[in-house]
Amino acid sequence: MTDAKPFLRALMGQAAWPPPIWLMRQAGRYLPEYRAVRARVPDFISLCTTPELAAEVTLQPIRRYGFDAAILFSDILVVPWALGQDLRFVEGEGPRLPPIRDADDLAVLDPARLEASVAPVMETVVRVRAALSSTSTTLIGFAGAPFTVACYMVEGGGSRDFATVRAMAYAQPEVFAALMETLVQATIAYLDLQIRAGAETVMLFDSWAGVLSPPLFDRHVVEPTRRIVTAIRDRHPTIPIIGFPRLASTMLPRYVATGVNGIGMDTGMDPAYAAGVVPKSIALQGNLDPMALVAGGDALHAEVDAVLAPMRGRPYIFNLGHGIVPQTNPDHVAALIAQVRASKA
Ligand code: CP3
Q: What is the value of pTM for the model shown?
């Protein structure tokens, strides 16, 4: 157990200082080397499904900064795409999908397509794991959690308030339940494939979990996540699972019932509150404001100290509260890592 990589040790419930560190969206447009690779493909999905390039961009931030974890370069919307829903990323606007609004629309989703469609992603996992073999860097696989993936599938893209999908959950409960069931099964299959290809831990991104009411949070966030965690743990008992119930706020205590080994805190979560309601057997991860990283300097330093303070003495992984934004200065990332690694217990 003491031989385990620092990142995995935190997920096993061990407190260590300084904490391991990685950043959501650490591979991305803020890095010139990412933009150079991105320019070689016509669209974002081609980058996700070209193993040589996806592996390269996964490794770029590891080479530059030596993070404790690498996250597979892909996207949560690869699952609806692999199930047969058309997906395009429109420059400057984000994802676009033909929306699913009724029972007939569900017919485009074919679970039998999943495994063959995601084969290039598994090839990326194999390549990255091989490249990391001589390092202490952990490889994180991931999927979107069913509710957040359903948000994009039903709305047909991003949304200010996800009003259509939230109304569907009340007004067409059978249609919504059928969609969620398809996503639970697809997510289990997809994460199982990633682990068999070499992912050492997996993370479920539930970016819109907190737009739900408490009863629907239990039904569409906690319960599907608990089922995925149970199924993955059954097949891979030693693989830890991280959940990120973004915007959960005071619904956070409910999420403990999912059985995850680590919980990601979003920017608005008070880390002292999280430390009070999440048992010490579960690692916390987060939650520096990505805009403090844009600002850099003294404001960044003060904010990092404020995040770290309540995390001492418990299993913890440093991260942002949401993804790095493209306008971030890469030098600020280096300064952040230096500060976290120099922090005293
Ligand atoms: O470095 C990493 O974190 C790994 C790769 C990763 C991406 N997306 C790459 C990406 C991960 C883990 C994601 C997760 C993801 N994707 C989430 C959950 C986390 C969150 O941000 O809330 C969501 C909601 C998506 C869906 C998505 N993908 C949107 C809304 C967009 C458009 C917005 C944007 O930032 O452009 C994407 C595109 C996307 N996914 C990019 C990257 C690097 C940018 C596309 C490009 O480079 O052209």
A: 0.97
